[in-house]
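User: Can you predict the 3D structure for this chain?
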Amino acid sequence: MGLRIDRASFLTLTFGMAGLACNTGHSPTVAASVVDIPPQPPQPIDGGAPVAIARIDDPSSKPQAVIPPGEDDDDDDDDMGAPSAESGVTLTPLSNPNGCGWVNPKTLVRPTAACQDDQGTAGSCNVMKTCSGFAFPKQKCEAYRRLLKPKVAQKALDCLAKLTDKQTCDACNAYRCGDLALKLACPDTSADASCVQITTKCTSVSMTECRTYLAGLNVAGRAKMVSCLVAKSGCGFGIYSCSEGLF
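Assistant: Here is the predicted structure, written as structure tokens:
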């Protein structure tokens, strides 16, 4: 006699065994779709001005402030005048292509008769007004006393003493007082030997221009000018720049 199998019971048992087998294993892993978004460029704000974004993987980086075009973050105007140049720095206003403080010799009447600038002693730089936190004008004054002939140095000091507080804080005025004094110095043929050295090495400097600057310098000042202008770099900047660099 054959074994009787109930179809409904068979199906129930079969599905139950299949479910048990599936539940005893690990659940299948479904791979998630990952979209790699590349780094984005700075996004424009307020009419297209870019915003600087700091890299989060660089702890030393910091976002930089962005000033919209046409705006300035400092509109203060100090009546005393802010220092406008430091030692070794030459400012060149648009109205004066030769350099900050340069005096046009054509506007001056230089002595032609025999006169002496190397007598006496220049006064003290204490006659100058002070510029708080800006020592350069006083340092320039002391350099004039060291490297210019006494009477030429005194002309520079007299010019510096007449400056207002605001003018004293502008280094261009300190340069101008020295340039003016040199261009008003008495002619001195003893400068010719140094000028021959200069014009031989630096052909862009004329004898007339050289005599104008070296006549009012003492021995130490002339030696410094020769050293500056016979060098290729000094010659390239010109005699006025070398004169500025002396002081």
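The first helix runs from residue 7 to 23. The two ends are 130 Å apart (CA to CA).
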